[in-house]
Amino acid sequence: xxxxxxxxxxxxSARIRRRGHYVSRSFSTxxxxxxxxxxxxxxxxxDEYDGKREGETIGDLLKKYHAEVTHTKKGAxxxxxxxxxxxxxxVSQHLAAEFGPRHAREYRDSRLKEVSASTVKKELHLLxxxxxxxxREWEMDVRNxxxxxxxxxxxxxxxxxxxxxxxxxxxxxxxxxxxNRDFGDIVRIAYLTGMRQxxxxxxxxxDIDFDRAIAVLRDTKNSEQRIVPLDHRVIRLLGRRKPADxxxxxxxxxxxxxxDGLRTVWHRITREIGITDLRFHDLRxxxxxxFFEMGLSPxxxxxxxxxxxxxxxxRYTHLxxxxxxxxxxxxxxxx
Length: 335
Hints:
The chain has three domains: 3-54, no CATH class; 58-157, DNA polymerase, domain 1; 173-334, Intergrase catalytic core (hpI Integrase, Chain A). A three-stranded antiparallel β-sheet has the order 1-2-3, with helices on one face. The protein has a three-stranded antiparallel β-sheet with strand order 4-5-6. The protein has helices at 30-45, 58-68, 76-88, 101-112, 117-136, 165-175, 182-193, 197-201, 232-241, 259-272, 281-293, 298-305, 310-314, 321-334; strands at 3-6, 12-18, 21-27, 208-209, 214-217, 226-229. A hairpin with a 5-residue loop joins strand 1 (3-6) and strand 2. The model has no long low-confidence stretch (mean pLDDT 86). The protein is elongated. Helix 2 packs antiparallel against helix 3 (76-88), helix 4 (101-112) runs antiparallel to helix 5 and helix 7 runs antiparallel to helix 9. The protein has 335 residues and is mainly alpha-helical.
């Protein structure tokens, strides 16, 4: 049987739960809501109900959300790619009014066959944010089913890809064939400092203190300023990029790449050298793991990398067993 609710906006909401269908719609009057509900219930009972004509799909909401909300976020580019993925999936064809836990579970399970648990979790969080926004801001009579399903956990699928020195050399060698030398320098900085891609691309000359060998990161993922110590090789690299006229103090962004352009070159080069399972973020993982292997404490590492908790750092500390064995042996000798 249908239920009716008077909304704060003055409209009337009609909800129908019948024979596996969950349908809702808003009307300007209660009478209109009741007439619609009677018609839909009759069609459901006669197996003639066609939900596609009853309202917006998840895909429609995603497009609206992208236009109104996504561009205001720090991670707009990443969220745009996730929205594109959702739009390419059959989940986008479901009616928003009928979107329930079963559909969310089906999406989760199908995506887990294609990508990592971490990626699926982020996509589900986006769907949840979408449905919350539709309820709170657009006053849509829909539900958010994401809290009602089990979120995937990384478990043994957590990524622990290390980057060998041989792979780094191959990357840098291939980068020499490109006129824009930014790519090679960006890769070196990521490998040596553990900075995120976005942090490197947003670096400005004003952020570099050559005398103290530090970089002040102002545009971070956590929106908190961070000071990163710079390896002498990074200082030398940045020094070479300065204008030839030393009297001119450089200003503005150091690198010309935008994230999409860098991603394109990364994929092209990794295909060329035959290392297709390597991601740019693996450079950060490698740097963070090496910091631990150098003997730095979790607090010291987090101050460099910006990880907020020890739990977040734990997934980056798949340390080289041989390096640990050497360190243990050295400790025993001191005794």
